Amino acid sequence: MSLAGGCTIRGVCGKDPDLNSLQEALLYGIKGTSAYYYHALEVGYDSPEIGHFLAKALYSTLTNVNFDKNRFLELILENGRIHLEAMKLLDKAYVETFGKPEPTEVPTGTAEGHGILVTGHSYKALYELLRQIEEKGLEEEIKVYTHAEMFPAHAYPELRKFKALYGNWGGSWLYQRKEFAEFPGVILGTSNCVQQPTKAYQDRIFTVGIAGLEGVPHVKDYNFEPVIEKALQTPKMKAYNGGKLLTGFHHTNVLAMKDRLIELIGEGKIGHIFVVGGCDTPHKGMGYYERLTELIPGDALILSAACGKFRYNARDYGTIEGIPRFLDFGQCNNVYSIIEIAVALANELGTDVNSLPVSIVLSWMEQKAIAILYSLLYLGIKGIYIGPRPPEFLTPNVFEALKKQFDLKLIGEPEKDLKDMLKEGTSVDESAPLAEELE
């Protein structure tokens, strides 16, 4: 028998607002984990452990199965552990499939010829499109551009080898309707963060893989024949020499200069390391991240990932003894590389992460950023700043509990927060997995 309106009040289902909040928090986390897991599966990499946890966690949120708030907090931290495994799996999948990322300057201008703009997260889809353009001998006729989270694709050797891959167009998903309308060629959506099109480009957009839009043609089995044909029918783009953006940092290439980094830290030439990353959002509070990165002193490195960086990655941050101050690690899942670097540096210095001058400042908008936060909490990292506002699925009671247990901080004024970050950094719980790894 069904209930009219469903379970909308506590008396019907037995859940209080805080339990419902914890269930929602878990659901957001496993959605994020599912995204990374899916992209690993796309290129043939699997982990039964991840799949088994997703089933267990989802089942735990079903009606009348688990009312224990403490167990949900445990599941959220377990989600953090599994999400770390998912990031590790996806990194392994991409490196073994497309090669180790290399620091690469990417043009933001245009080349003469027809254009295809690829947005989303799927390197598999991009690879297949580039391969098919090459097979048709159209690499001089058609140029492929990346958008938003596809931007780091230029750093992978097996993608960069294709002559059709030219540059990057636009910034984050937030401005895609304006940027897609201005792009004269075909647009291809490969994952989440693709929005229903406007009339300006609805007749030249396609989706592939997990992505789907109402009334938009969907490419099956990565057969990009209709996309390529449509591109040849669109106006040619004129050559334009825009600026360049640097991407492609990864734990494999940063740790290759580990000794130099340690030397510079020891000499005081690198005084602090900031991890500033996460989603771009329409919230006016995102101006905080633009201002914070502008204020960060010249003896600090800024490690970034995900699409929020498009608000501040075009700025010239200079170098420290030849090392770029701003290091773009790519997609949101590449936070795994940043964690690897922090652990390796701490081990080399014979200390723990708490003694490293590291501050973590995250912006959240959707599920993957939430799952990354859970991974950091699972590792026992305390003192993380999040914003531009608290996650709306967390009740005041649940958010206060997380703040207390993990010293989670909500961003405030960038000038004041920066002073506190430079004094305190982050800390690691002595009983947490990361502390054990550092022993």
Q: How would you concisely characterize the structure shown here?
A:
The chain is of the alpha/beta class and 439 residues long.
Query: In whole angstroms, how far apart are the ends?
Result: 56 Å
Mean pLDDT: 93
Helix content: 40-55%
C-alpha geometry: globular
Number of E strands? 18
Number of helices: 16
Q: Could you say which structural class the secondary elements and strand pairing correspond to? A: alpha/beta
Strand content: 15-25%
Radius of gyration: 22 Å
Blueprint (SSEs and pairs):
Elements: H1 10-13, H2 17-42, H3 48-60, H4 69-98, E1 104-107, E2 114-119, H5 123-135, E3 142-147, H6 157-160, E4 165-168, H7 176-182, E5 186-189, E6 205-208, E7 218-219, H8 225-233, E8 244-247, H9 251-254, H10 258-266, E9 272-278, H11 287-295, E10 300-304, E11 319-320, E12 323-324, E13 326-328, H12 335-348, E14 358-363, H13 367-378, E15 381-382, E16 385-387, H14 396-406, E17 409-410, H15 414-424, E18 427-428, H16 433-438
Parallel strand pairs: 2-3, 2-5, 3-4, 5-6, 6-7, 9-10, 9-14, 10-13, 14-16, 16-17
Antiparallel strand pairs: 1-8, 11-12, 15-18
Helix pairs in contact: 2-3, 2-4, 2-13, 3-4, 4-13
Report on the structure:
This protein is α/β, with parallel strands linked by helices. It is built from 16 helices and 18 strands. The chain has helices at residues 10-13, 17-42, 48-60, 69-98, 123-135, 157-160, 176-182, 225-233, 251-254, 258-266, 287-295, 335-348, 367-378, 396-406, 414-424, 433-438, and strands at residues 104-107, 114-119, 142-147, 165-168, 186-189, 205-208, 218-219, 244-247, 272-278, 300-304, 319-320, 323-324, 326-328, 358-363, 381-382, 385-387, 409-410, 427-428. Strands 4-3-2-5-6-7 form a six-stranded parallel β-sheet, with helices on one face. Strands 13-10-9-14-16-17 form a six-stranded parallel β-sheet. Strand 3, helix 6 (157-160) and strand 4 form a beta-alpha-beta unit. Helix 3 (48-60) packs antiparallel against helix 4 (69-98). The longest helix has 30 residues, at 69-98. The model has no long low-confidence stretch (mean pLDDT 93).
